[in-house]
Design a protein that fits this description.
Elements lengths: L2 E4 L9 E5 L6 E2 L3 E3 L8 E3 L18 E8 L6 E7 L4 E8 L2 E10 L4 E3 L8 E3 L19 E6 L6 E8 L4 E8 L2 E9 L4 E3 L8
Parallel strand pairs: 4-5, 10-11
Antiparallel strand pairs: 1-2, 2-3, 6-7, 7-8, 8-9, 9-10, 12-13, 13-14, 14-15, 15-16
C-alpha cells in the first residue's frame, strides 16, 4: 500500500512523479518546489517574493538539534552541520567513511567562534594541529603585505597593526590613528630586530 502518482515524461528517468511506500524508498521525480511553482533545482524553497525560513527540528530530549549532511558517496564521506542543543552551538564537522574525522568550525550562541575547537574561550579561538596553534593570513598577490588590525572600538579609529611586509620580508608593528597607519615602531627581519628611536603619541 502507498501513494503513487504516475507520469508520462520522456525527460524524467522515473515511473512515478511521487512514490511513497512505508517499506521502500520514497521520492519525487524532477524538481521539488516548496512555495515555488517553477523550481529551478532539485529542491527550491520560496519564489523570491518573501522571507524564506527552513526549520530543522530535533527529536525531543536529544543533544542533536538536527543537521545537514553534504556527502560525496554512499560511504558517507563529506561534511555535516549539526546543532548541538547541549551547548547551544552550531558545529561544522568533516566525516570519512561514516565516522567523524574532526571539528572544523563552531559558532556559539553568544557569538564566540571556534576553529579547531568546540569550546571557544573568546570572540575567535583558533586551535591548530601543533602545540602553538595556527592562524595564517595571506595576501592575494605575491610580495604584498598581510596585516592584522587591532582596534579599541568598533569604529576602528585607534589601534595598531601587525604587518608582514612582503617586499622587505619583515614583520612590522605600526600605530593606527584616524584610519592612517604610522611609521613602523618595531621591525623584525629574518636576522635582526629594531625598535624605532621615537614612537609618536596619538592625539
Amino acid at each position: 500500500t502507498g501513494l503513487y502518482i504516475d507520469i508520462d515524461d520522456p525527460d524524467l528517468d522515473a515511473s512515478y512523479g511521487i512514490y511513497q511506500e512505508s517499506n521502500n524508498p520514497n521520492y519525487f521525480a524532477g524538481n521539488l518546489g516548496i512555495g515555488a511553482t517553477s523550481p529551478q533545482d532539485k529542491l527550491q524553497i520560496g519564489d523570491h517574493s518573501s522571507v524564506v525560513a527552513l526549520n530543522i527540528a530535533s527529536l525531543n530530549n536529544q543533544d542533536s538539534g538536527g543537521g545537514i549532511k553534504f556527502t560525496e558517496n554512499s560511504a558517507w564521506s563529506g561534511f555535516y552541520i549539526d546543532h548541538d542543543t547541549s551547548s547551544n552551538s552550531l558545529n561544522f564537522q568533516s566525516w570519512v567513511d561514516g565516522a567523524k574525522f574532526g571539528d572544523i568550525l563552531t559558532l556559539e550562541r553568544d557569538g564566540n567562534v571556534g576553529i579547531g575547537t568546540t569550546s571557544p574561550e573568546g570572540d575567535l579561538h583558533v586551535r591548530g594541529d601543533s602545540a602553538l596553534g595556527s592562524l595564517i593570513v595571506t595576501p592575494g598577490v605575491s610580495d604584498s603585505d598581510a596585516e592584522l588590525l587591532l582596534t579599541e572600538n568598533t569604529s576602528a579609529s585607534l589601534g595598531g597593526i601587525v604587518r608582514y611586509d612582503g617586499s622587505a620580508n619583515q614583520i612590522q608593528i605600526l600605530g593606527w590613528s584616524s584610519d592612517v597607519a604610522t611609521a613602523p615602531h618595531v621591525v623584525v627581519g629574518h636576522d635582526a630586530a629594531r625598535v624605532a628611536s621615537a614612537c609618536p603619541d596619538h592625539a
